[in-house]
Specification:
alpha/beta, 15 helices, 25 strands, about 20% strand
Length: about 625
């Protein structure tokens, strides 16, 4: 990899923020129930140098989790202070400063939860994610891990997953990235924190799926059957965690929320009318007391072991087109389908290991196109002009760039483009300028401009709207990164990226299966929303952790207020594995639509598939959620 440091000769941090770079090591991935083990914070001056630092181990009072990753054993943490012991001092250091972290939504979530447990208000009001900044800059890297960025910027990393060393490396990464963004006149992805708080669950039950199939609702005349889904509500005589553990060990599936799949709710005070009890009563789910549970457990019946499934057979060509499914919304006006659904059969591929995911093509038999590997920025023209030219650029195999970044290889000048404020930077960088006729001639005759005959950078395959590809069997974890234009500072769009975990009827099982800004992770921790920047959000999915009843994950976006996707412009989606980008696509045919299904990940037998969707609707997020089975509070 080569470094772009030559584009950022000096470090210049924006003076309108007081920056503090930090890293948090944790006992697990869920801030609501796991704990911080170590924190390090470095306060920066405007020139990027460190003005003040704070670093400490923390005694979480619980199992420290993956010691093999962070090296923080119970013995090492035994003499460390608890978070409440350092909360006041640490809070004073953070107050009034903008937090910088790698995967900042993760670190913020843990700090917010720890401050809540300690009885303090969270002092962090704004944050910046260096992972999102790296993506916005489109640095020439295979992935955006901290170690990869350290190598790119030629920064020595001494002790990965040590909070202090990670923060030290991040200071350099942030300083160089911020300076490069300044030379590109690209705004930094700073987001507010106060409107998105972590809900701490002191007794959140960790779900362990039962090895027995769910036999359905409890019939009191028959009794409990292994595999039933049990929800506990309210105080219990036996501590809740202990009771849940006992049920799990006995073969039951203990859940935190009531859904249509729930077999029984255990509650000693049904008159309390808790949310779980109300939901159970509305759905006709039996409610029993803890004593009734004890009596039923004494005569519980064996369940049916879940089937392992038939052998997987992957045909050479999909025999019949897949049909995209969308929520049915009654009495709500819809936009027309923007373009006909075109499904390109996915080609079979060998199983791809994580080390080769960045270069593995999801369309193995696709012929390389003339402009493959190029990134083209369009300046000037109308919205319709941009839509047409982006479509033609995609046909040539190039990828439209939404922002002026390090990855841009050519600039397409349309009417009025010469007066764009970025033209001076285009000239400074010596980027080739092309015209509409260059694009049209290339489509008609296959002409490749002379400057493009040099070796182009590697680029992930670009999917067309409606295209379907199989995801590699060996890779269960994915990040669906959604971004839009970041140039209009002061005129930012309020966009919400969301996910729905859907069953075979294309409905959610419980409200926890609607992942959005007020519920950022589903009950199993399989799908999580990360708000990475003011024009970047991600849905992260662990397909192996999805419950068996989930057949499809729909990823959508909604533009808040009266603005539309026509106002927003093109939306870029990249699907990333741990080691690189698997596929990308750009959706820009939106006009009057306020919501849009961007992508779907769905099961086809034992294979997970990805579809680039781009189906718009002119109703709001609430109507979309109702269509997928979410119960929206009338209040």
């Amino acid at each position: 990899m080569t470094s772009a440091l030559s584009h950022a000769e000096t470090l210049r941090l924006p003076a309108d923020h007081r920056w503090v770079v930090l890293d948090v090591e944790t006992s697990g991935m869920r801030s609501a129930s796991h704990r911080a083990l170590s924190i390090a914070a470095l306060v920066l001056r405007e020139d990027g140098s460190v003005e003040r630092q704070f670093s400490t181990l923390l005694n979480p009072g619980c199992d420290p989790g993956p010691v093999h990753v962070h090296g923080l054993s119970p013995d090492r943490l035994a003499g460390a202070p608890r978070f409440e012991d350092i909360a006041e001092e640490f809070g004073e250091l953070l107050s009034g400063r903008t937090m910088v972290a790698h995967n900042a939504s993760f670190d913020y979530g843990f700090l917010d939860a720890e401050f809540q447990r300690a009885g303090f208000g969270t002092p962090i009001e704004k944050r910046l994610c260096t992972l999102a900044l790296s993506r916005r800059l489109e640095l020439d890297v295979p992935n955006h891990r901290l170690a990869t960025l350290a190598e790119y910027w030629k920064i020595e990393q001494l002790n990965a997953h040590d909070a202090y060393d990670d923060a030290r490396v991040l200071v350099e990464v942030f300083g160089r990235s911020a300076s490069l963004a300044d030379t590109l006149q690209l705004p930094l992805p700073v987001v507010g924190c106060k409107d998105r708080r972590v809900t701490v669950h002191p007794q959140q039950i960790k779900r362990v799926p039962s090895s027995f199939a769910n036999p359905g609702r409890l019939d009191l005349t028959r009794g409990l059957v292994q595999g039933m889904k049990v929800v506990i509500s309210g105080p219990t005589r036996i501590p809740r965690i202990a009771l849940a553990t006992r049920l799990t060990n006995t073969g039951f599936d203990v859940m935190n929320t009531v859904s249509r799949q729930t077999s029984v709710v255990v509650c000693d005070n049904a008159a309390s009318q808790s949310g779980k009890v109300r939901k159970a009563e509305a759905d006709g789910i039996p409610i029993i007391s803890e004593q009734q549970l004890e009596d039923l457990l004494a005569r519980a019946m064996p369940g049916e072991i879940k089937s392992e499934g038939a052998p997987v057979v992957v045909p050479n060509v999909v025999s019949e087109p897949d049909t995209a499914t969308f929520p049915e919304v009654i009495e709500v006006e819809r936009a027309a389908v923007l373009v006909p659904e075109i499904v390109v059969p996915a080609q079979p591929r060998p199983v791809v290991g994580p080390s080769t995911i960045a270069t593995a093509s999801p369309l193995a038999n696709r012929k390389a196109k003339a402009w493959q590997g190029r990134r083209v920025l369009i300046l000037g023209g109308s919205h319709l002009d941009g839509v047409i030219m982006r479509s033609r650029i995609l046909q040539l195999g190039a990828r439209p760039s939404l922002n002026f970044t390090t990855a841009v290889t050519e600039v397409l000048i349309l009417e009025g483009g010469e007066s764009d404020k970025r033209m001076a930077r285009v000239t400074d960088r010596g980027l080739p300028k092309i015209t509409e006729s260059d694009v049209n001639e290339a489509l008609v005759s296959g002409v490749v401009p002379a400057h493009m005959k040099l070796e182009s950078r590697l680029s992930a395959p670009i999917l067309m709207r409606g295209e379907v590809v199989d995801l590699p069997v060996a890779q269960p974890t994915w990040s669906i990164n959604v971004a839009w234009r970041a140039e209009n500072v002061g005129d930012e769009f309020d966009v919400d990226v969301v996910a729905f975990l859907l069953d075979g009827a294309n409905k959610i099982d419980s409200d926890q299966d609607f992942v959005f800004y007020n519920n950022t992770v589903d009950e199993d921790g399989a799908v999580e929303l990360s708000v990475d920047g003011d024009s970047e959000q991600s849905i992260r999915a662990d397909l192996d952790s999805l419950p068996a009843e989930c057949k499809r994950v729909a990823i959508a976006a909604a533009v808040d207020g009266e603005r539309t996707f026509g106002d927003l412009g093109a939306v870029s989606v990249s699907v990333d594995g741990p080691d690189g980008t698997f596929a990308t696509f750009v959706l820009d045919l939106g006009t009057v639509e306020r919501t849009m299904v961007l992508a779907e990940i769905y099961r086809r037998g034992d294979i997970w598939r990805l579809r680039a969707v781009g189906q718009g609707h002119n109703h709001g997020l609430g109507a979309m959620a109702v269509g997928y089975g979410v119960e929206v509070d009338e209040d």
